[in-house]
Amino acid sequence: MPQFVPFRGILYQAGQDGADLSSLTAPPYDVIDEERRAQLEDLDPHNAVHLTLPRDDQPGDRYDRAGAMLRAWLDDGTLRLDDAAAFYSYRVEFEDESGASRVMHGVIGALEVEPPDDGDVLPHERTMPKPKSDRLDLLRATRANLEPIWGLTLTPGLTSLLDDEGVPAARCVDTRGARHCLFRVTDPARIEAISAAIAATPLVIADGHHRYETSLRFREEHDRPGPHDFIMCLVVELTNDELVVQPIHRVITHLGDTDLGTLVSDRFDVVELGPNDPETVERAAAAMAERSAMALVDARGVALLVARAEELAPMLADEPSILGGVDATRFEAGLAPAIEQAGGEVAYRHGRQIVAALVRKGEADAAVLLRPVDADLIRQAAEERIRMPQKTTFFHPKPSTGLVIRSLDH
After folding, report:
1. 3-class DSSP assignment, residue 308
2. Quick count: other Cβ atoms within 10 Å of Cβ 84?
3. Which of 130, 162, 306, 376 could staple 269 via S-S, CB 3.0–4.6 A?
4. What is the pLDDT of residues 55-72, one digit of tens each?
5. Mind spelling out the 3-state secondary structure of 240-253?
6. Which parts of 56-191 are beta strand (E)?
7. DSSP 26
8. What's the mean pLDDT in 36-43?
9. Would residue 45 count as lying in a domain?
10. How many CB atoms lie within 10 A of CB 175?
11. Would you state the pLDDT for residue 184?
């Protein structure tokens, strides 16, 4: 079962009295576009983005510069090593898409890495081929986990073991208004109970598959046990109360004159809803849930894609039955081959209004909106050790980078 242990975190000195670290923290590196990257760099010369996304256009190797910067910030007191090993209880207060107030509780610790499908740390999705040398080079140069991956535990009751009272060790407010707070857990009995709870059941990787695989490669470079056998991980209980799971939509370019709705009309009924405007997109989201459908956004407007079960069934024959109703599965089976045949290219974006606006502005030929999956289905797939299709889920809110760093040398 997964080994999960405390560690001595590295924290910003400025946050030791519960001060707001919003100007120093950043989203995870893989959701930062160039515009946001520049904004974060301008916020503060010590913003964590300088470590996670070092620039290429400066003298010397960018990874070596990130490593030197981390060490310099420790030397000059910008960062400090915590007094003792701890778990870090993590609380996020936020609003979901409906405007309802939500709270997510988790705990950050060091998770032992093991080969996928060879133990009890389970990949949640199939991963796309992606160069891993970038994160590996950064890990070698900094010898630190700069941001946590995200794991989901199947153990009920983990949340009740977490302590999030008193003055936080670190806190910030992200760009979406979510309030992140980090609290030390140092009581030996509580530490033991948290470790035991996480070790009791398999752990599902929700976010950070590529960083996990990078840590595996880094572990293989060493011939004896050590801190390189672990990766910093935020663990959250796999329940609908704790998680907000949003879909990742498909953005399609290079279709030319091809009408995607006509192209797939033999396997989907295309039901026109209206023009591509924000109001229709919201109506589409409600209709998608009601009719178990995807939605197509193109030059003509917004339409539902209602699957024709008999025509689509042969295309889903090789998929596990519990994935047959997952939109990412149906997209891969019923739409992706037709798009590829037409010369189209697929990209992945979160946020239905953002995606629809790309089509409206002519930056994409079409988009397919998907429905989210819920925590119960994720749990069932995990228990059956089934991986969902790539880019099925977007877990929200993302943990903030910079609240705590895990060094491999302390």
Report:
1. coil
2. 10
3. 306
4. 988 888 999 999 999 999
5. CCCCEEEEEEEEEE
6. 79-81, 87-95, 101-112, 121-123, 144-145, 149-153, 170-173, 179-185
7. B
8. 96
9. yes
10. 11
11. 95
